[in-house]
TrEMBL record:
Protein's recorded name: Transferase
Organism placement in taxonomy: Eukaryota, Viridiplantae, Streptophyta, Embryophyta, Tracheophyta
Keyword Ribonucleoprotein: no
Molecular-function GO terms, alphabetical: transferase activity
Keyword field contains Iron: no
Record's signal peptide: 1-19
The entry's keywords: Signal, Transferase
Coiled-coil stretches: none
Length: 210
């Protein structure tokens, strides 16, 4: 009798745990990640330095056998896109929102479990912009994919790693006055850089609540 009651309670617990959908882990306040990116067959590696504590985020993008693009974002909405080669290109953008908040995945819709890159993952989607895969065992992100088809695979995830301050200094040519005719965005297709689309950041980032 007592044991069947215990068993009934156990079933109840299992059922209520199953009914409650898991939620994605908040991003650590500071981490470094190496990301492998496939955008419709164009491959790149991104060195991602997320640093919420200091209000900054850095994507260092190495295109396959190509150039390196530095995409430096500040929480005041200013972003710099530059190269460090002899071309000395730099453009900047002023967005309405700052960098992604650690809890930017709050409110994502749970879709269940799927094995990706060999890891069993919980899967969520948010506003039909992003599909996010997190390892069931470690809660680390494994993979995410944008509505554009840009596909990100997380190769390393070092919680607490911080890039030295001097590396966050945009080069001097980012601050030189430009010819008024130059559309800063024409130098780099802003949408094609970084691990997040700017419009996605606009929707998910900053103060906007979803
Ligand atoms: C990149 O993604 C495309 C689909 O967009 C796929 O056909 C291709 O196999 C992928 N390549 C690599 C190296 O992951
Ligand atoms: C935002 O912060 C960066 C880094 O301190 C600075 O270079 C930039 O001018 C600031 N932008 C605005 C709009 O204040």
């Amino acid at each position: 009798m007592a044991s069947s009651l215990t068993y009934a309670l156990f079933l109840l617990l299992v059922a209520s745990a199953a009914a409650e959908s898991p939620t994605p882990a908040a991003w650590p306040l500071q981490f470094h990640s190496l990301l492998y990116v496939n955008y419709s067959g164009s491959l790149s590696m991104i060195d991602l330095w997320y640093d919420w504590t200091n209000g900054r985020n850095f994507n260092i993008v190495q295109d396959q056998l190509g150039s390196i693009l530095y995409d430096l974002e500040w929480n005041n909405g200013t972003s710099f896109f530059y190269s460090l080669d002899s071309a000395k290109k730099c453009s900047s953008a002023q967005l309405e929102v700052g960098i992604l908040r650690p809890n930017w995945l709050d409110g994502a819709e749970y879709l269940g479990q799927e094995t990706v890159d060999g890891f069993l993952c919980n899967v969520w989607q948010k506003v039909q912009f992003i599909w996010y895969y997190e390892d069931v065992v470690t809660n680390r992100p494994v993979h995410w994919e944008f509505y554009t088809g840009r596909s990100i695979h997380v190769m390393t995830f070092d919680v607490g790693a911080v890039l030295e301050d001097e590396k966050w200094q945009a080069p001097v040519y980012c601050f030189e006055k430009k010819d008024a005719q130059t559309d800063p965005r024409s130098e780099y297709k802003v949408v094609d850089v970084g691990f997040l689309e700017p419009q996605l950041k606009g929707i998910l980032g900053g103060t906007m609540q979803l």
